[in-house]
Amino acid sequence: MKLSVGAVAEPGSTRANKTGTWRTFRPVFNADLCVGCGICSQFCPEGIIHEKNDKYATDYDYCKGCGICAAECPKGAIKMVLEVK
Amino acid sequence: MKVIEGSYAVAEAVRVCKPHVISAYPITPQTHIVETLSQMVADGAIKAEYVRVESEFSAISVCIGASAAGTRTYTATTSQGLALMHEALFNAAGMRLPIVMTAVNRSLSAPLSIWNDQQDTISQRDTGWIQLHAENAQEASDTIIQAYKIAEYRSILLPVMVCMDGYILTHVYEPVELWEQKKVDAFLPEFDPVHVLDPKKPKTFGAFADPSLYTEFRYMVQEAMEVAKKKIVDIANEFRDEFGRYYGGLIDEYRAKDAETLILAMGSVIGTIKDAIDEMRADGIPVGLLKIRAYRPFPVDTIRDAVAGAKAIIVLDKNISMGYEGALFTDVKSALYGKSGVTALGFILGLGGRDITKQTIKDMVAKALEAMKSGKVQECEFVDLRKEVL
Q: Could you tell me which chain A residue has the CA closest to the CA of B64?
């Protein structure tokens, strides 16, 4: 790969940047408590929380662990858990 | 040849460069330039879009967007306005956008002053912009035409600041030779951008670079500056061939070849220094001048060669890096480190519009001659300091 003059990138280049490595806390989704309202998905600043079979889950490759989903979930179905390596 | 105001001459030079987008915010003493340009746009004399904005930060941001879209852009500002642009100036350079700006030199607050010194552009030294200084209205306007050619050169692609002293050059009426459009068109080809911002084919300019790549992008700017060192000289020569006027490449010399004492300076004070040199030469003092035309890229090798035969150098700074000394003085000494045993004196003068006279120049030369005899050198001295008010 050669660098482009002026750091010009084509669309989709951020996919290569796995921002999940930045995370300190991981959101853990409890499917039993989830009512499928989708508020977590609407508030996620990364746009990476998606619905599957009426339940919601995040993409840990890109989740930075900001915790907004957990703060917004009206059912307390998302808990922020310290990442341990 | 017409007797016109310096600001009008600059606006005329911008007009013949056919910019597509002009965006600026009026600020003294730059106002006459953009006022004239907005009139030219209103009259249809330039087929450009003149974007009125609410601040200098917006003005430079408009130019960044327009330049990324592949257009030739122009802005002008001074002092507080240039300081307000600071953050975006780095983006323009890092995104490699060949914007041309007239940076009218004016002091910075506080205390409030609208008069000339060069603290404003010196304070933007590290933004990645090429900085060229002009001695008179003709050079300030001719350099605009050269600046577009330098900026848009494929292996440079950096924005250029053409610096001209406020009032002393912007508001003075001088005879200026104007340009034939045909000749400018032949000299300055159309801007041919590498990347174009187009909603139909979206791209990110100045994208995120993590620690594994950031250094390399910065290195590319440094390399482009090295190319500019050569190209500024080439384009000055081409301009001479085409238009018959020449102001030096990176530097210019005046009675410097056999000079024992060399004065180094930038901007409008050069004219005063030349007159003072003629008078001192008539009195048998072997003194000469190195005019610094390119401040960034800094002409390290050229200065080393030019200083080689001198016994003393005097560096004039219309600025100060507080807690140290004048910025040009630091740069010149650093260029000569380990290469020259020359006696070096740095003077801070002309701040906030204080006049620099021929006598001021002669006094500094006398001090240099004294320092060579005594071996005592004061490295950073305020000239004509009014001790009675302190």
A: A6
